[in-house]
Amino acid sequence: MSDNIFMQKALELAAKGKGRTSPNPMVGAVVVKGGKIISRGYHRKAGTSHAEVIALKKAGAAAKGAALYVNLEPCCHTEKRTPPCTKAIIKSGIKKVVVAMIDPNPDVSGMGLKELQAAGIRTETGIMKGEAQRLNETFIKYITEKEPFVILKIAQSLDGKIATARGESKWITGAEARDHVHKLRNEVDALLTGIGTVKKDNPSLDCRIRGGKNPYRIIVDSSLQISPNAKALKYNDNRTIIAVTKKAGAQKIDSLARLGARALAVKAKAGRVDLKSLMKELGKLEITSVMIEGGSSISASALSAGIVDKVMFFVAPKIIGGVDAVPSVGGKSPALLKNALKLKDMQTTFFGEDILIEGRFY
Fold first, then answer.
1. Which of 12, 52, 168, 281 is catalytic?
2. Scanning 67, 70, 206, 249, which has the fewest C-beta atoms within 10 Å of its C-beta?
3. Of all residues in the chain, what percent carry a pLDDT higher than 70?
4. What is the Cα–Cα distance from 197 to 311, expressed in whole angstroms?
5. Which H/E stretch holds residue 315?
6. Is 168 a catalytic residue?
7. How far apart are the C-alpha atoms of 37 and 59, rounded to whole Å?
8. What average pLDDT score do residues 166-180 get?
9. Residue 30 scores a pLDDT above 90
């Protein structure tokens, strides 16, 4: 069996931790001896054992002289909740370590491999590097920039409308597409929407997958207009964050605590919450990923602020028409086509009759 096959298995194992490892990366590991996988492991949740340690423990004495395949460079730093994996690898008698990518964490960044090499262990890097980077794109953005990876999700008609002129929007896309959105909600740290959407649709901003987790609920509400009866305030779990500016007023801000929510004061830009500053504040809270689900105004603001890393457009085979229908992205249009935002790495997936179009800005 080839290196790629073993690394593919490590990547598949790592993906099992999706939505649970934040702020850590997703990591999978397999121990290979005599051309066969003898043990495997993956990081299930932040604070629990790392993939390499689990795989080595399962292998036991058989790990001596074997090879370890892991999608991310083993950690070597000590200022964290779990011991460094390099120590366990060296102690196990592993003779070769193959990694897909170097850990972008400045506390590791090649030092893990150097420690292994100093102990006489052969190392190889770069096997399926692109796939490994894509899997952990959220972690890479967060650990290098201290800001969350931002996804802009939109459900629209074929002609780019998210609601009729009367504001009707339920449901543009079908059940299969909506089910997938809840899967995405289960994987991200936070959902973000604007006060306009809260006032119009009163969304719960929850995850409806059995056994799933509810993400943080972030509402951009510069002057704190939210109603105390909003569904997003019903949880009383301190995971609803209202992003406000100073003009919200101390009395209004204090009232949020009684509703089980918290205000996050953010720098203002043109009288409104500066979304770039908001991302920096969310990074300080160890929120590593945010999915924006809102109206045309918040979508336009996010794109204009340059905070979006990835877009996910769910497109229904419907034509709404009309200049008075609500477009998916509001704001001002560029005067020249060359100034339009350009996407990379385009992908398409069907969900029933709807099609998901994904693209990235990096």
1. 52
2. 249
3. 99
4. 19
5. strand 310-316
6. no
7. 10
8. 93
9. yes
